[in-house]
């Protein structure tokens, strides 16, 4: 059953996507789930590029996974967590998070940025870890975009690594049903 919070997030996301489309070298990602890596028991964000069905798993820390899980469940802590604080700070400054971008893959580490529109109409880019950026995106309902070269680089590096455990996980993800994606399927 869709809650008011879910509906508001979906509507905000849809408005942001249609109003803020990017050129062909960027792709829209959807958060498809939050799971535990069956091998390392580390949390993994599962993002998916819908047109070609490419999955982008990003391993994250336990604290960030907890922050994202709380937002997905619509839980509101008694006191604001860091991501809630950032969202309310932006709001109080009359700034708006326009989108999150997974902008680079450097030496196996994903980099992200927040694109923030200020009250004066300026757009500011703020460097962020993908997990923090996505935690904020979940709270605010903004779209998550990735540079096409980041997706291609992630695919190339996973093939080059030839790590059997990672390859098994990627194979499992490719064949996973929505129910397989854990407690937080999207």
Structure description:
This protein has a single domain (4-176), classed as Bifunctional nuclease domain (Roll). The longest helix has 16 residues, at 4-19. A hairpin with a 2-residue loop joins strand 4 (96-106) and strand 5. The protein is globular. The model is unreliable at 12-19 (pLDDT under 50). The protein contains six helices and seven strands; from the N terminus they run H-E-E-E-H-H-E-E-E-H-E-H-H. 41% of the residues lie in helices and 29% in strands. It has a seven-stranded mixed beta sheet with strand order 3-2-1-7-4-5-6, with helices on both faces. The protein has helices spanning 4-19, 62-73, 82-92, 130-140, 148-161, 164-175, and strands at residues 26-36, 43-49, 54-59, 96-106, 109-117, 123-128, 144-147. The chain is of the alpha+beta class and 186 residues long.
Q: Summary?
A:
This protein has about 190 residues and is of the alpha+beta class.
Summarize the helices and strands and which ones pair or pack.
Layout: H1 4-19, E1 26-36, E2 43-49, E3 54-59, H2 62-73, H3 82-92, E4 96-106, E5 109-117, E6 123-128, H4 130-140, E7 144-147, H5 148-161, H6 164-175
Parallel strand pairs: 4-7
Antiparallel strand pairs: 1-2, 1-7, 2-3, 4-5, 5-6
Biggest β-sheet strands, sense, barrel: 7 strands, mixed
CATH class: Alpha Beta
Query: pLDDT under 50 segments (min length 5)?
Result: 12-19
The total domain count is 1
Number of strands: 7
Strand order of the largest sheet: 3-2-1-7-4-5-6
User: Could you state the order of secondary-structure elements as H and E?
Assistant: HEEEHHEEEHEHH
Radius of gyration: 16 Å
Which of globular, elongated, flat, extended, rod-shaped describes the shape?
globular
How much is the average pLDDT? 80
């Amino acid at each position: 059953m869709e809650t008011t919070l879910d509906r508001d997030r979906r509507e905000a996301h849809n408005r942001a996507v249609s109003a803020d489309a990017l050129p062909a070298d960027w792709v829209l990602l959807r958060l498809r789930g939050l799971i535990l890596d069956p091998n390392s028991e580390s949390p993994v964000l599962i993002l998916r590029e819908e047109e070609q069905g490419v999955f982008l798993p990003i391993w994250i820390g336990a604290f960030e996974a907890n922050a994202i899980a709380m937002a997905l469940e619509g839980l509101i802590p008694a006191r604001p967590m860091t991501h809630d604080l950032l969202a309310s700070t932006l709001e109080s400054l009359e700034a708006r998070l326009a989108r999150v971008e997974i902008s680079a893959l450097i030496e196996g580490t994903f980099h992200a940025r927040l694109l923030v529109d200020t009250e004066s109409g300026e757009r500011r880019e703020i460097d962020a870890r993908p997990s923090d950026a996505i935690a904020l995106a979940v709270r605010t309902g903004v779209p998550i975009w990735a540079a096409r070269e980041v997706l291609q680089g992630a695919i190339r590096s996973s093939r080059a690594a030839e790590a059997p455990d990672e390859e098994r996980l990627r194979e499992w993800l490719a064949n996973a049903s929505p129910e397989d994606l854990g407690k937080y399927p999207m």
